[in-house]
Design a protein that fits this description.
Layout: H1 2-31, E1 44-54, E2 60-72, E3 77-81, E4 84-87, E5 95-98, E6 101-105, E7 110-121, E8 130-140, E9 145-156, E10 159-169, E11 174-185
Antiparallel strand pairs: 1-2, 2-3, 2-4, 3-6, 4-5, 5-7, 6-7, 7-8, 8-9, 9-10, 10-11
Length: 189
């Protein structure tokens, strides 16, 4: 009787092992679903981002923060909602750029801002406090330039300048207004 009981137990164990193996094989086959990523769908997103880019000497050159970021693999495009970008330069005061939206391409090879773009820097040893507003702006960090073809309003103490188009080199601290520039003297009270 012990032989048949041992045989029965062995038989039941073999059945259990077989069912377990079959269950594992079926599960693995059904879990091998290959998902194809559509190019117009995001491949990553983040919230409350803060990223600092350093130059070759290890000092900050650019800082990007935003409450929401969505990345698309095709063309390496990143879209930012209400971004705040700080552009560091040799001057002690960096440039601050705010907008409703921005799109970075090629990592951060080029960043385009649109809707309510404000460029601001505090006074330093070379330049007075300056604020510029426009509807769109493109920066090219490697070239250290900012540019727009849209209307620009530049405000400094006692002066407001309206123009169309602007090219700025933040390393050199130069701003070139491209056309239709007209200046208004607005005395501070």
């Amino acid at each position: 009787m012990t032989l048949s009981r041992n045989t029965l137990i062995l038989f039941l164990l073999l059945i259990a092992f077989g069912l377990s193996s079959w269950s594992i094989i079926i599960t693995r086959q059904t879990s091998k679903v290959i998902t194809q990523h559509s190019p117009d769908q995001p491949d990553a997103f983040m919230e409350n981002i803060a990223s600092t880019v350093f130059n070759k000497t290890g000092t900050p050159s650019l800082k990007v923060s935003a409450p929401k970021m969505v990345h698309y693999e095709e063309n390496d495009v990143t879209e930012l909602t209400t971004p705040h970008v700080i552009v560091y330069r040799k001057s002690p005061e960096p440039w601050h750029i705010d907008a409703d939206y921005a799109r970075a391409t090629g990592g951060i090879n080029q960043i385009t801002f649109w809707n309510n773009v404000v460029i601001h820097h505090l006074a330093d040893t070379q330049d007075p406090i300056t604020t510029m507003t426009t509807s769109s702006l493109t920066i090219v960090p490697d070239e250290k330039i900012a540019k727009t073809d849209d209307a620009v309003v530049m405000t400094q103490p006692d002066t407001t300048v309206h123009a169309v188009g602007m090219l700025a080199n933040w390393e050199a601290g130069t701003v070139k207004l491209l056309s239709q520039a007209r200046e208004e003297y607005v005395p501070q009270s």
